[in-house]
Automatic annotation (TrEMBL):
One GO CC term on file: cytosol
Signal peptide range in chain numbering: none
GO molecular function, one term: transferase activity
InterPro entries: Class_I_gatase-like, PdxT/SNO
Positions bound to L-glutamine: G5, E6, S7, R68, I96, R97
Catalytic residues (UniProt): C37, H132, E134
Protein name: Glutamine amidotransferase involved in pyridoxine biosynthesis
Keyword set, alphabetical order: Glutamine amidotransferase
One of the GO BP terms on file: pyridoxine metabolic process
């Protein structure tokens, strides 16, 4: 799991603690990785101008371009029920300064969108969500992730 939080800080800690190579190695070996919010940012292969300006080191495990704070700042946080490709009923989501993918490669399976913004995706053993599933009482997304293991 790569959780939500502040992606620049998490990126710096991954670099300082020498965790980038071990994470990449495990991912290439097929270890499932689930990134939520900031984790979604870090798992992308490229970023918007805001990401590049922060000199953020991305892991590049999903072929996607990420836009941090794609839905606005903290005061623009919101809840919404959205359909996800792998669920039969909508999923209640919580977005807090959430990112979104603005471009994805051919090998990326888009699992959920709001308008033209990708908010859930999968590439092989890597799952990402722009929202915080830990803040709702619904385990279906975790059950989906457990199927990878």
């Amino acid at each position: 799991m790569i959780p939500g939080g502040e992606s620049t800080t998490i990126s710096r800690l991954i670099t300082q603690k020498g965790l980038k190579e071990p994470i990449l190695k495990k991912a290439k070996q097929g270890t499932p990785i689930f990134g939520t919010c900031a984790g979604m940012v870090l798992l992308a292969s490229s970023g918007s101008e805001e990401v590049e300006k922060a000199n953020q080191s991305l892991l590049g495990l999903i072929d996607a371009k990420v836009n941090r704070n794609a839905f606005g700042r903290q005061r623009n946080s919101f809840h919404i029920n959205i359909p996800l490709k792998f669920l039969d009923k909508p999923y209640k989501t919580v977005f807090i300064r959430a990112p979104a993918y603005t471009e994805v490669g051919e090998k990326v399976d888009i699992l959920g969108k709001i308008s033209d913004k990708v908010i859930a995706a999968r590439q092989k053993n890597i799952l990402v969500t722009a929202f915080h599933p830990e803040l709702v009482d619904d385990n279906r997304i975790y059950n989906y992730f457990l199927e990878f293991i």
